[in-house]
Amino acid sequence: MRGVTFPGDRKVEIMTFDDPTPGPGEVVIEVKASGLCGSDLHAYRAPSDDQAFRELAKGKPYETMRDNGPMIGGHEPSGVVVAVGPGVSERVARLGQRVMIHHYSGCHICDQCRTGWPQICETMVPDIYGWTAHGAHAKYMKCAAHTLVTLPDSLSFEAGAAIACGSGTSYSALRKVQPNSSHTVAIFGQGPVGLSGTQFAAAMGARVIALDVNAERLEMANRFGAAETINPADTNAVEAIRDLTHGKGAHFSVETSGAQQAITDAIKCLRLWGTAVFVGLGRSASVDFSADVIFRQINVVGSFTFSTNIMEECGTFSVDRGVDVEAIFSNRWTLDQAGKAYELLDKQASGKGVIVF
Predict the structure, then answer these.
(1) pLDDT per residue as tens digits for the range 212-235
(2) Each residue of 109-167: pLDDT tens digit?
(3) Which domains does the chain have, with CATH numbers?
């Protein structure tokens, strides 16, 4: 089979690999949809020189991703189970099953793994599909059977790919504050994670204020259910949010961009007793914890992707509330178009792309 790899220096190479065979506790899926994620750009933009790459990746989860040779990219998979390895019960996986894949695999034993959080495994650095193990930008993908989450019949494979990373991440972040129709939620950054957060928060009944410096993304936020949009490049975001909330501020904020100013504003824009949820990975920001957090009784929460259970819940929520999850994808590509797909993603100015098979 052919698979997409990232040799570095903003290049994509489609290479030939053996079709995978499942070992004990493993399955193989035929990939139907594989989303492109902004985090892929770390590998796409990285130096092709291995030593320079290691310096750049030092201390990060993907530091060892080149140790076993070229790795197939893609960590937002959905597809159909086509092979089941020894020791896998039909209760876990069966041929023909429509699935999404939780893209981390840990020790399977510690408290975090057993509760669906292998990305924070307590005993080992987990495998990350598309980074340290072969991913989904290929016709077939092998994975641990316990990473499978059933894709509801009424959701498309594209929807499954969205939930498998970006949309699942935003749903998990919102789940920590559980907004409803009495709440205003400010969502900083309207890339794929922020846009899906806008979509889910609106479906939960909340009034959404969407913020981004890109006009096209703000237009998409309106279509995804935002009640108000703010461009922080044109106005003071904190003052604008207070003007829209009778001077009080938002009940909740979700920061998805990782931008320093957005991190600070996500705290300052809140009313007393508000909660800021941080998703975006970026540089450190300066926060006055006395004035902006302690004296105002603000809660600050981190949110790192999602568990297998929350991934399943996100699918069910999308079905029950009629959320058009796959609408997050503005571009659909074939495997042969992967180079063009990542060139567009690298600009970080439009919507989200998905490779379909």
Answers:
(1) 999 999 999 999 999 999 999 999
(2) 999 999 999 999 999 999 999 999 999 999 999 999 999 999 999 999 999 999 999 99
(3) 2-165+306-356 (3.90.180.10), 167-302 (3.40.50.720)
Burial call 241-257: b when 16+ CB within 10 Å, e when fewer: bbebbeeebbbbbbbbb
Strand pairing report for 270-278 and 250-255 = parallel
Contacts of 249 (CB under 8 A, 6+ apart): 241, 242, 269, 270, 271, 272, 274
Task: Give the dihedral sign, CA 37/39/45/48.
Answer: negative
What CA–CA distance (Å, rounded) separates 45 from 201? 32
Q: Are 80 and 32 in contact (CB under 8 A)?
A: yes
Q: pTM for the whole thing?
A: 0.95
CA angle 207–212–215, rounded 5-degree value = 105
Q: Which helix (H) or strand (E) holds 317?
A: helix 308-320
> Using alpha carbons only, what angle is made at residue 24 by residues 20 and 26, rounded to the nearest 5 degrees?
50
Q: How far apart are the first and last CA of the chain?
A: 13
Q: Which two tokens stand for residue 117?
A: 């959080």
Phi-psi region of 80 (alpha: psi -120 to 50; beta: other; left: phi over 0): beta
